[in-house]
Specification:
With 941 residues, the chain is mainly β. It contains one helix and 86 strands. Helix content is 0%, strand content 48%. It starts with a strand and ends with a strand. GO terms for molecular function: actin filament binding.
């Protein structure tokens, strides 16, 4: 049997550097990348051409001409006298695509590779051994998606059934996956197939009447699928197969429509401090979920929740952890109130077929289905815009507008269960948007571990900033915050340097004009990494926020904390992008891309086939700047701006002709227009009124194009909301179980007032609430489906260190599994200080890790003191960890007159003191709460 594989590979322009001898005066130098250097291109030169001296040789002379020559100078036959230019043969593209096979014995073999001359190649292979084979396919030195491919080979004469094809190893959600079953000579018996995975997969079979059966299945969600092929109730060799289905190129949009039961609590329940209350409801089965408290028109308290079971429920309402009066309360839920997805009626042609660029309609009727939230997600080749009209009578009119043809998956859930028929597979036809997509993929290696005392470095690129506007601090796991050094390595490339004193996760804050740069605060682990993966990759830079047509758009990607893996970056929009990638070999890289057309673009960043936090990024590439580059801003406020008070700055046109406009975007995302007034012919005043505390973005455009530096970042309010000072702890960030209410604390003490946004992504929606506690805010949630959940915590729009947190949930399915679901809550926080340290006016002492026995001391001042003179001694705590040095001297008439302590760096100190009376003195030296060796010292005068 000959196995045939078909691959579609990008046809890219080759870039050689080693073919200088094949240069023609009227042609540019031909270049090829280093990874292709081992693949020798074949070219033809005109007869009589001297390749060494780059000129025509003597007629009929075979030296350097007459025959084609390869890069290594070997003679090759077949060039005509009148051939006037160098020609690359078509199979050059094949040579740059490597393929080999690892046989069951471990030996390597090579398949036959054929170029189809249409951007695809075909691989043919005649197996020599039975068993599991691995096919490695590389393009430009990198494995193509899905490589290595596994397939099982069996002897045809054995009468056993075999299966082969790409659908057994990999696929893309929403696209058909194919494989073939070879049944010739198998005898009598029944053939059965099953595909199990994150979603249902419709299977279709076709008997080819030649001893083979073609099988196609359509996976509707990414993940691992288990494909079972049985003959006579027994698995064939290699079965069950594991196929990895990705969501590559798939766009997803989702909406949720709440439909909850609202119940007034029995009796008169009044509480003035409403924000300090939280509530949870426990069903008869024991399932406990957070629920929302509401202030009813009569002033009484009510709760809002989704009924899941019939019977008596118990509601607990607590204030700062203590039950309020009459809590817990009892509520009875009837049969009609429990949400039943099977009673939801869905009608409309929009769930059967669709058209691009038009509204595809369907109707959802929940009138007989009880109470429950309705969630809708649509996944396909484009991010279809969803419109939902609630008719206020239990029915909803829903429409979606895709922009690309192809298969779309519509997930429709009510009360966390799929309605009948969901997920729906819809074939959308029509014209596409001619969206262009470019992608690069690079292998990221693990960086060497850093140890205590080593020189640590974190790099980032920020073109156009002044070094003295940058500042950095590093906070150790013990809570010690120290200034870090920033130096400019090259133009626009900066490095933060620090020397850690303990193992664990450090927080590195980098600020530009007192505002965190994109990506800051950074997590930097000293010692072995405790957690890796896509959720540990972060990206930031202007190229993820805005850009200009024809100009480089740049951003940083930090993969250090994620460990080794594959990093893929895609740019999708009206025109194809030229992507440049620079690896800094320290766990960070720099990406630059250029696009030729303005419009909406999406930047996707994936690590090991999973989107990193906040990916994909959506941004607008503006037209070429034109006269906008002439404009400049003056008197822009850098501090002292308060919410609900007007602020202003000046814009000079400098002779540019056109329309000036400006808007202010608050931290919550709301937009407000700025008031623009002409001062004279070439100067304008821009006034705006910030409504919230936090970092605002001021967009200033000229003829619809951002002026240099726009959008400008402005911190509003006295409160210094610092995401680097926010920490999260609790069992809800560890391993959890379905149906069990869990929680975690977000500590905002000394972080200032700001906006706390909590988002939980996972295989099901979660009931969640957030209430104020002494040290910050408590977040409670109840997962319903096992799997991996990612909890994102943002403070004033910045991820705190550790976010997103990866949480593993085990247990039984209490709701139906679907695509990734999102639950979120946003809280405007108040300024908090810790009350645990009463004498410190709210200051919290960090948790020190030190050993006072390792402190050394020396100097005459430890034994003898001279009256009226400086008495000196030194303290070295460089090996004793971090803590605070305390020195005190007590004499015959009380404390010593004066003591001076000077820090000499690296926890080395010089101490001097003066005594005014003769007598016996006692010198106490403590490193934190513990005496150093020899303390207390007895000093004579």
């Amino acid at each position: 049997m000959v196995y045939l594989f078909h691959f579609e590979l990008p046809v890219e322009e080759a870039t050689w550097t080693c073919l200088a001898t094949a240069y023609r005066p009227y042609l540019k130098c031909l270049t090829v990348s280093e990874v292709d250097a081992s693949a020798k291109a074949v070219m033809h030169l005109p007869r009589g051409y001297d390749a060494v001296n780059r000129r025509p040789g003597p007629s009929g002379d075979d030296e350097g001409g007459g025959d084609g020559v390869g890069p290594e100078g070997a003679a090759r036959n077949g060039a005509d006298d009148d051939q006037s230019e160098i020609t690359f043969l078509a199979f050059f593209y094949v040579n740059t695509k490597k393929a080999d096979i690892t046989m069951p014995s471990g030996k390597r073999d090579q398949p036959s590779v054929e170029d189809n001359h249409d951007g695809t190649v075909s691989l043919k292979y005649d197996p020599k051994e039975e068993g599991l084979h691995e096919l490695f396919v590389k393009y430009n030195g990198e494995n193509v998606q899905g490589s290595p491919f596994k397939f099982h080979v069996d002897s045809i004469t054995s009468g056993h059934i075999t299966a082969y094809g790409p659908g057994l190893t990999h696929g893309v959600s929403g696209e058909p996956s194919d494989f073939t079953i070879y049944t010739k000579g198998a005898g009598a018996g029944g053939l059965s197939l099953a595909v199990e995975g994150p979603s249902k997969a419709d299977i279709s079979c076709h008997d080819n009447k030649d001893g083979t059966v073609s099988v196609t299945y359509l996976p509707t969600a990414p993940g691992e699928y288990r494909i079972s092929v049985k003959f006579g109730d027994k698995h064939i060799k290699g079965s069950p197969y594991n196929s990895k289905v990705t969501g590559e190129g798939r766009k997803r949009n989702q909406i949720s429509v709440g439909s909850c039961s609202e119940v007034s609590l029995p009796g008169k329940v009044l509480d003035k401090d409403f924000r300090l209350l939280n509530a949870s409801i426990q069903a008869p089965s024991g399932l406990e979920e957070p629920c929302f408290l509401k202030r009813l028109p009569n002033g009484n308290l009510g709760i809002s929740f989704t009924p899941r079971e019939i019977g008596q429920h118990v509601v607990s309402v607590k204030r700062m952890g203590q039950h309020i009066v009459n809590s817990p309360f009892k509520i009875t839920v009837g049969e009609r109130e429990v949400g039943d997805a099977k009673k939801v009626k869905v009608t409309g042609n929009g769930l059967k077929e669709g058209k691009t660029h038009v509204e595809n309609l369907f109707t959802v009727d929940t009138r007989s289905a009880g109470y429950g939230g309705l969630s809708l997600s649509i996944e396909g080749p484009s991010k279809a815009e969803i419109q939902c009209k609630d008719n206020e009578d239990g029915t909803l009119n829903i429409s979606y507008r895709p922009t690309e043809p192809g298969y779309y998956i519509v997930n429709l859930k009510f009360a966390d269960h799929h309605v009948d028929g969901s997920p729906f597979t819809v074939k959308v036809t029509g014209e596409g948007s001619n969206c262009q997509r470019e992608k690069i993929e690079r292998r990221r290696e693990a960086v060497p571990l850093t140890e205590v005392g080593s020189n640590c470095k974190l790099t980032f690129k920020m073109p156009g900033v002044l070094p003295y506007d940058l500042s950095s601090t590093v906070t150790s796991p013990g809570g010690i915050t120290e200034d870090a050094e920033i130096n400019e390595i090259e133009d626009g490339l900066y490095a933060v340097h620090f020397v850690p004193k303990e193992l664990g996760v450090h927080t590195v804050s980098v600020r530009y004009k007192e505002v965190h740069i994109p990506g800051s605060p950074f997590q930097f682990t000293v010692g072995p990494l405790s957690d890796g993966g896509a959720h540990r990759v972060h990206a930031g830079g202007s190229g993820l926020e805005r850009g200009e047509q024809g100009q480089p758009c740049e951003f940083n990607v930090w993969t250090r904390e994620a460990g080794p893996g594959s990093l893929a970056i895609s740019v999708e929009g009206p025109s194809k992008a030229e992507i440049d990638f620079k690896d800094r070999k320290d766990g960070s890289c720099y990406v630059s891309y250029v696009v030729g057309e303005p419009g909406e673009y999406r930047i996707g960043i994936k690590f090991n086939d999973q989107h990193i936090p906040d990916s994909p990024y959506k941004l607008f590439i503006s037209p070429a700047m034109g006269d906008a580059h002439k404009l400049e801003v003056a008197q822009f406020p850098t501090s002292g701006v308060q919410a609900d008070y007007p602020a202003q700055f000046i814009v000079r046109k400098n002779g540019a002709v056109g329309q000036l406009d400006a808007k202010v975007v608050s931290p919550s995302g709301t937009e407000d227009d700025c008031f623009i007034q002409s001062i004279d012919q070439d100067m304008y005043s821009v006034r705006f009124m910030p409504r919230d505390n936090g970092v605002h973005n001021i967009h200033v455009k000229f003829n619809g194009v951002h002026i240099p530096g726009s959008p400008y970042r402005l911190k509003v309010g006295k409160g210094d909301a610092d995401p680097a000072a926010v920490h999260a702890t609790g069992s809800g960030l560890g391993d959890v179980k379905t149906g069990h209410k869990t929680d975690f604390i977000v500590d905002t003490c000394n972080a200032g007032a700001g906006t706390l946004a909590v988002t939980i992504d996972g295989p099901s929606k979660v009931s969640m609430d957030c209430t104020e506690v002494e040290e910050g805010y408590k977040v409670r949630y109840t997962p319903l489906v096992p799997g991996e959940y990612y909890i994102s915590l943002k403070y004033n729009g910045y991820h705190i260190v550790g976010s997103p947190f990866k949480v593993t949930c085990t247990g039984e399915d209490l709701a139906e599994r679907g695509p990734q679901e999102t639950s979120s809550v946003v809280v405007e926080t108040v300024h908090k200080v810790s009350k645990s340290h009463k004498g410190g006016a709210g200051v919290v002492l960090p948790h020190f890790k030190s050993n006072a026995t390792l402190v050394t001391s020396k100097g005459m001042g430890l034994k003898k003191a001279y009256v009226g003179k400086q008495n000196l001694f030194s303290i070295s705590a460089s090996d004793a960890g971090n803590n605070i040095l305390f020195v005190g001297i007590y004499g015959p008439k009380g404390p010593c007159e004066e003591i001076f302590i000077k820090h000499m760096k690296q926890n080395n100190y010089q101490v001097s003191y003066i005594v005014r009376e003769r007598g016996e003195y006692i010198l106490l030296v403590k490193w934190g709460d513990d005496h150093i060796p020899g303390s207390p010292f007895k000093i004579e005068t």
